[in-house]
Amino acid sequence: MKKLIVMLMLIAFAGVGVAIAADNVVYENKKGNVTFDHKTHSETLECSKCHEGTPAKIAIDKASAHKDACKTCHKETSGPTKCNDCHKK
Ligand code: HEC
Ligand code: HEC
Ligand code: HEC
After folding, report:
1. Which amino acids bring their CB within 6 angstroms of ligand 2?
2. Does the pLDDT of residue 10 top 50, yes or no?
3. What spacing in Å lies between the alpha carbon of 40 and ligand 1's midpoint?
4. Is the pLDDT of residue 21 over 50?
């Protein structure tokens, strides 16, 4: 019985984790953590601006973040382009 409760709690926690992941994603790194507010971005922009086909997780790394995945659009719109606008210590 105890085991079952623990398992149910773990499942509930996992559910919360996923919900948060789609709202705010924090990319932790030495230069300073970058917070990507998925909620705001997806409310103001069409999903297809970033997602191809059915939206799913996108892997972000340094190269993609500094180009097409993040910065290219910020240059074209009014998003942040300076290092410390994205990287916060
Ligand atoms: C500005 C770019 C951008 C826009 C616009 C956007 N997304 Fe995303 N989305 C991302 C990125 C980047 C990730 C990866 C985040 C991560 O690592 O969890 C992501 C992740 C997701 C995930 C996976 C979440 C997870 O944790 O598995 C879903 C589902 C998703 N987006 C749905 C949507 C939908 C639906 C829309 C439109 C209403 C949308 N997105 C708009 C960039 C965007
Ligand atoms: C398709 C366009 C687009 C893409 C792709 C995009 N952004 Fe943005 N982003 C914007 C715009 C437009 C704003 C300005 C919104 C505003 O000021 O209201 C913004 C604002 C921001 C801000 C500042 C938010 C604030 O609260 O001041 C951060 C940080 C940010 N984006 C990070 C990212 C990261 C990290 C990625 C890639 C994972 C990304 N963005 C991808 C359009 C985009
Ligand atoms: C649009 C937002 C944005 C801007 C502007 C930006 N970065 Fe980044 N940067 C990111 C994201 C997102 C990552 C990926 C982080 C990860 O992989 O965890 C990243 C990764 C990095 C990394 C790799 C860190 C590591 O530990 O691997 C370095 C270094 C870096 N950026 C430096 C800079 C410098 C220097 C500038 C200014 C010239 C800059 N960044 C501008 C969003 C940004």
Report:
1. 34-37, 41, 45, 49-50, 60, 65, 69-70, 73-74, 77-80, 86
2. no
3. 11
4. no
Q: If you average pLDDT over every residue of the chain, what do you get?
A: 83
Tell me which residue of 73, 69, 58 sits closest to 21, measured CA to CA. Answer: 58
Tokens linked to 8: 């149910």
Centroid of ligand 3 to alpha carbon of 17 (angstroms)? 24
- Protein residue whose Cα sits closest to atom 38 of ligand 2: 70
| Cβ atoms 87, 26 nearer than 8 A | no
Residue 37's contacts (CB-CB under 8 Å, 6 or more residues apart) are 23, 24
- Separation of CA 20 from chain center: 9
**Looking at ligand 1, which residue's alpha carbon is closest to its atom 37?**
47
